Amino acid sequence: MGELLLKSGFKRVARVIGSMNFFRREWIILALIAVAAAGLFAVAGHFYARPAVLRIAVGPPGSDDAQLIAGIAPRLVSDSAPFRWRQVVTETPAEAVKLLEEGKVNLAIVRQDQHLPTNGQAIAVFHQNVVVLVTKPSSGVTEIAQLAGKTIGAVGRNGVNNSILAELLPHYGLAREAVNVVTIGPGEVAPAIAEGRIAAALMAGPITGRAVTEVIAALAPDSDPDLVFIPFRNAEAIAKRMPQFEATEIDAGSFGGSPPRPPKPTPTVKFAHFLVASSTMRDTLAADVARSLFSLRPGLAYEFPAANRLEAPDTAKDAIVPVHPGAAAYFDGEEKTFFDQYSDIFYLALIGFGFVGSAFASIQRFAAPSGGVRDSELFQRVRALIEQVRSAASEEELLTHELELHDVFTVVLRKAEHNSLEDAQLSALSIAIQHLHRTIDARRVALHRMAAVAQNSS
Prior knowledge:
- It is a single chain.
- With 458 residues, this protein is an alpha/beta fold.
- It has three domains: 2-40 and 367-451, no CATH class; 51-124 and 275-330, Periplasmic binding protein-like II (D-Maltodextrin-Binding Protein, domain 2); 129-273, D-Maltodextrin-Binding Protein, domain 2 (3-Layer(aba) Sandwich).
- Helix content is 50%, strand content 16%.
- Strands 1, 2, 3, 4, 5, 6, 7, 8, 9 and 10 form a ten-stranded mixed sheet that branches.
- The two termini are 25 Å apart.
């Protein structure tokens, strides 16, 4: 009997070791899955947290816009902004538009009065350009209609402002060819008007910007304050017919002097310089660009006064330059939270983990913790034990069957602990094990009676 117990003990130890091997494999697989998931999240987090590098086109060189863009770049680093930008200087705003349309840059500074990029959406208004048309009293010109047959000097590099007057002349009954427009530098305006080479000068820029104030100061120094501001009458009507322009006024005394220059409000038109982004830029990045610009503006204004001219774009759906949805969300206070942005990803991840869990549960059902014993084999073992117990001829056989029953019970317990048995299976096995216990007890009683009868007969 001792030898029998020893053999049974070895069998139990072997099964326990097999069960431990399964657990070890199970946890190794789980650990590998966890490490892989952590690695994927780490890689995704690295790329998400790494600042995006954006290329921004701006021109011409040396302009207030180009200087402001260059001044913002290092502050993005010190402010830990989620993006950086690299300046691409162009000779004209038209070249910046072309680069954006060709996908060679992510952002560009463009003009409202010229061709706008087909794939551009507004992030911010960099500044408003007011159109100023001035001359000296000696020219005899006080109205636009009197410019017919005369030469006008358009101040600006590479002729960027030459088309403005040509666009506006038809509103006053003049053909585009009725006026000769030439490009002229800011320092040439005063002598050109004095010598009669041009009848008037046209400028476009912020009312307090260098492009306008320096020319006005050169034309009308304190010793010679006379200056004629030629009005663009019916500016509201112009803006309705030509949406690239907006109606405005040059306030009296905008350029100082005594008497003030101009002496009374002068109607004119204006247009904006926009910072636009490619329509393919993701909304969160566009919102980051808008947020950084306006959070950095107060600190930039001392060194770069042009920063004070930054404005939020029109977020209306019928705006001339459509606003980028990400920037609109920032300005309208409707930015999405982190969960709103990535809720779909979380939802899909949960579904994926559900599939993985289901697959793993299926594997557990086919690979039981006790050395790979399947559920069907458990039922077969219990049924076989019942038959063996009923035909047992000795106490030693019953003891062997009891040890096997203990092994079965251990397997069922571990399976129940790991949820690898369905409720119906667990109930059936519990009833079968209880029945087997009663069968063993009944057979043991029967063997004792048979032994007593045999002893009495002898």
